[in-house]
Write the structure tokens for this entry.
Amino acid sequence: MNPYVSIVVPVLSDAEAAERLVGQIGPHDPVEVIVADGGPDPALDALGTRPKVRLLRVARGRARQMNAGATAATGEWLLFLHADSRLPPDWIRHLRQVPGDAAGGWFRFALDDDAWQARAIERGVAWRVRLFRLPYGDQGLFVRRHAFHALGGFAELPLMEDVEFVRRLMREGRPFELPLPLVTSARRWRRDGWFRRSARNLAILICYLAGVPPARLARWYIRDS
């Protein structure tokens, strides 16, 4: 019997986080996990021996890795997660309650830090999603497998592949936000500065929507990382 959900995790030099995420999957969950390694990273080898886990070695590039994972998937739903995400309890039950006319959706954004800055950023993301329906990949994008393939998967862009895909997904069917927090590591915000990183992300989004080529944005993103 095919799994209900195929979780696709693109990984690049983040084996420890990927192991924590995979460790959340219980033995009786109707789930398969596909780890798409863009390394290759020998530290991930042990993951491929676990039940319900498949390890793919894929050429580097988040969109390329996610597309490869989706091609190998067999679940009714595809759930694309960043390696440093943490799934909320009872998430499968809530996913089963997604309306039939919803082609896909996302979780609520949350950070794993008690700082007031984290709460402020969470509120800012909530307003961005509410007003513009533009979640990022760190909110865990889920989509029905047939809808994903009908849309042609992720465009193989060097950056903003998540936003580009969501904009097409919304034309396929009504999107749905699960009322559950998908907790993301705040390590990059702590490293780069809470509001500096968020301001940079917003600037990149605005430039992308204004028509700046993703390749140019990717060079800016890498140079400033």
Summary: The longest helix spans residues 116-132. Strands lie at 5-11, 31-37, 53-57, 77-80, 85-86, 104-111, 141-144, 176-184. The chain has one domain: 5-185. The chain is about 40% helix and 20% strand.
